[in-house]
UniProtKB/TrEMBL annotation:
Signal peptide: none annotated. This is LacI family transcriptional regulator. The keyword Signal applies. Belongs to the bacterial solute-binding protein 2 family.
Length: 618
């Protein structure tokens, strides 16, 4: 085994040397104790952010002597990156970490690799779900946070310059869109210019010099990296343009890092944007050792760093973590109800995981009423629990009670469903599914069926009004079928995620459209099961006369697929208990959690339901 690994590593060294991608640190890979070899395909090493990503990977790998790394550098060329990955696969790496140069162009090779080995995608997401784990920022949210910060700086209005990285990157488009969405709400703030500086400090300096000659009054510069912000600052300094405030993104420590620049007053503020390099190795080791509970997506939290909190942030980052083991952790959990098989499986998972983790659980159900959940959260605050977690009935209306939890210094976790507060710092993380992607996956399944009809009429059975899964599953489904005009949603109504609700809404749809209905898309399995009853009562054959696709992948749904009455179900994993307890323990150990932790899920069809059902745990 070790000899095979050693030969493979030597081959990888030869490959990387010949392609100009070999790094001296790889020489350590010659150990005969190597158990795993990880290939890292980097988009480029021009960006300082990516150089730091590689350094974090190297530092973390040193803690795992049986793991060795081979790096490749695509030098901003997608064709070269594809060849790099193919060579790594041919050499026999055990796991691939890739930060794509171009999301669309790299999607096929990532999917090819995923069929053979685990794949971790960093920073730029590929299309679809053909990977093991994605770690990357929410660029639109980051842009919104930066926009709001600058709006707060410019209370009396002003002129803003935006400095971007390379043109055309989807991640930068998202960041800029979020930034502009917020500033667009302020009539007295104007973005006077946007320039491209390709992540380069010198280019940002040159572009800023031109802008200073063109615009005599610039109040704030927002650069998509601290490095470019520093270049713009140097130009202003050289030009004698005092009074301009500079805001960047990255928030790295060390010389000329964003944190130092804020501390020295060069930058007014920066927003941290973790590379994910360290986390990629931690998860890679777990994946290679077949650990359970690996999420599908990790979205790191971005922290706003200003002159007022930079020292506190640095102190917290440098302090050794202390875990309080003197007493048992108490978790207060407010469950929204027991409206479905999915919810009951979710509740049982949380109870079992708390028992296994040795965490005292105070569990309250809210019967799908927001006021009861607010009462439960307030009771947890009064009891002085260590952590509060809840699965919210709806997205809005939580700010006041979460402010109370924040004042009591009790962290809050969101399980299964998200909220939209005015201040995202009111909760520590969201653990659950990507509801938007679930809607997309249901639509993709439908599109791939290639129904032989010029017009396909769809009935959509929606979940609870204003709930996160109902909003996002509808949006994701609509996003995909918008590209296929033959698919039309002719009727939609809320079945409140219940079987009875689904049956009633389907009866109403059949009364209006009857035999004109081709497809039912239900936001959960329970409503789909209700629709099946209504279709049979009407005299039609569910799964044949009317195709049905739903979300959850419960045992009841699999039985319906095996009976030929349900065509497909998109998994929404209810077994969130272990990840929730791990997050609670991490919080109590003083660690900052990512903004979102997305679970791993699949898509199942009637054709494979019998075989898939054998491996189901709920």
């Amino acid at each position: 085994m070790f000899k095979v690994k050693l030969n493979m590593i030597v081959l990888l060294m030869i490959v990387t040397i010949l392609t100009g991608c070999y790094h001296p640190s790889n020489q350590a890979a010659g150990s005969d104790q190597v158990k795993f070899v990880i290939g890292v395909s980097q988009a480029n090493l021009i960006e300082p952010w990516r150089v730091i990503m590689n350094e974090e990977i190297k530092e973390e790998v040193l803690k795992h002597p049986d793991v060795k790394i081979v790096f490749t550098d695509a030098v901003q060329n997608s064709g070269k990156q594809i060849r790099d990955v193919e060579e790594l696969l041919e050499a026999g790496i055990d796991l691939l970490i890739i930060s794509p140069n171009d999301s669309a162009e790299l999607t096929p090779i990532v999917a090819k690799a995923y069929k053979k080995i685990p794949v971790i995608v960093l920073d730029r997401a590929v299309e679809g779900y053909a990977y093991t784990l994605y770690i990357g920022p929410d660029n639109k949210s980051l842009g919104k946070e930066a926009g709001q910060y600058i709006a707060d700086l410019l209370r009396n209005g002003g002129n803003v310059v935006e400095i971007q990285g390379p043109a055309g990157l989807p991640s930068l488009r998202e960041r800029s869109a979020g930034f502009r969405e917020v500033l667009g709400q302020y009539n007295n703030i104007k973005i006077v210019a946007t320039v491209i500086a390709d992540w380069q400090r010198d280019k940002a300096e040159d572009e800023m010099e031109k802008l200073l000659q063109q615009y005599p009054k610039i109040d704030v510069v927002f650069a998509h990296s601290d490095y470019m912000a520093l270049g713009a600052y140097k130009a202003a300094k050289k030009h004698g343009a005092d009074g301009i405030q500079f805001v960047g993104v990255d928030g790295f420590s060390g010389p000329n890092g964003g944190l130092q620049l804020v501390e020295e007053g060069i930058l007014e503020g920066t927003f941290t944007c973790l590379t994910g390099g360290r986390e990629a190795i931690l998860y890679a080791v777990d994946i290679l050792n077949h650990e359970k509970g690996i999420p599908k997506k990790i979205i790191p939290r971005s922290n706003k760093i200003t002159r007022y909190n930079v020292l506190e942030y640095l102190k917290a980052a440098n302090e050794p973590r202390k875990e309080n083991r003197s007493k048992k952790i108490v978790l207060g959990f407010s469950q929204l109800g027991a409206e479905s098989d999915w919810r009951r499986a979710n509740s049982q998972s949380i109870k079992n995981a708390a028992l296994e983790a040795g965490i005292d659980l105070v569990f309250l159900e809210a019967d799908q009423k927001q006021e009861k959940q607010i009462q439960a959260i307030r009771s947890f605050i009064t009891q002085g629990v260590d952590v509060i977690a809840f699965s919210p009935v709806v997205e809005g209306g939580w700010d006041e009670v979460l402010e109370e939890a924040k004042m009591a210094e009790i962290p809050v976790l969101l399980s299964d469903r998200a909220i939209k507060p005015d201040d995202n710092s009111l909760y520590a993380t969201f653990i659950g599914s990507d509801f938007l992607e679930e809607g997309r996956r249901a639509a993709r399944w439908l599109v791939e069926k290639k129904i032989a009809s010029q017009s396909v009429n769809v009935i959509e059975l929606e979940g609870t009004i204003d709930s996160a899964p109902a909003i996002d599953r509808k949006k994701g489904f609509a996003e995909i079928i918008a590209n296929y005009p033959q698919f039309q949603v002719i009727y939609s109504a809320s079945g409140d995620f219940t079987e009875v609700g689904g049956q009633d809404m389907m009866k109403a749809a059949l009364a209006i459209y009857g035999n004109q209905i081709h497809v039912v898309y239900a936001h959960n399995d329970d409503m789909a099961l209700g629709a099946i009853k209504a279709i049979e009562e009407y005299g039609l054959r569910p799964g044949k006369d009317i195709l049905i696709v739903s979300v959850d992948a419960t045992a009841a749904a699999f039985k319906a697929m095996m009976a030929g009455k349900l065509n497909s179900t998109v998994e929404c994993n209810p077994l969130l208990g272990p990840q929730l307890m791990q997050a609670v323990k991490s919080l109590m150990a003083g660690r900052q959690l990512p903004m979102r932790i997305i679970t791993s899920e699949g898509v199942f069809s009637a054709e494979t339901a019998r075989q898939d059902y054998l491996n189901r745990r709920y």
